[in-house]
Amino acid sequence: MNAFTKRPNSMRLFLGVIICIFAGALFISSPSYADEKHAPISKESFLKAWKAHQKNLPTTVTFEKTDEPNTYIYETTLFPYKGKLKILNVVVDKALDYYYDYDLDSEDMLKGLVEIEFTDLPEKFYKRHSYSLNLWERQNYLFYVDNRWMSIDQWRKFEAAKEMETSPAPRATESEDKKDLIVLISFAIFLCIWLFAILRTKKAYKKADESIEIQKQAFKLAEESLTLQKEQTDYLRQLLKDK
Fold first, then answer.
1. What is the pTM of this model?
2. In 78-93, which positions are buried (b, 16+ CB within 10 angstroms) versus exposed (e)?
3. Residue 97 pLDDT > 90, yes or no?
């Protein structure tokens, strides 16, 4: 093998490395890979969120772990039960059927639930308390929204808050419009009164100035009259002296 055959092999190896790097970059940057890498959608993360959710429910009275594996002492106000709750299985999948709350589009949403067993329940209990058990099953679901697990009620509040942020400000009601109109009319009346008072004041000042000017002219005429009388008096005195 000479130098001419080594060069094409090196070039092929270099091109192969470049292609592998480019393909790897495309795979890593793909949305599916990013979701799989960053989304905590494991059963363990869901089960942790589910346990916290069950403890924080206002209907939960007791949720305490026992020495038995995956078994808890459970009591709820939804139905008369205080006994063992055993976790049998955890299911996390988009294909889970959710038959409640049709106003939210949960079909393509990642969902999770826990399959459990109330070990101390009699068989007839499910028939007697089917509605309350149905409510409990609704609380059993969690949804992966905004990179975290949340209940259906939390999801609804989240959507409402997001809608409030994106929706325009509500239009003022009719009563608010009337209030604004009253304020505007009151301001206009006050402005008219203020302008009228200013005009009246200016007219009063103008009349006062005219009156002062007339008085000045009268004083000037009186002064000129006195001066003329004095001159006449002096002239008469001079005539009397000459005689």
1. 0.51
2. bbebeebbbbeebebe
3. no
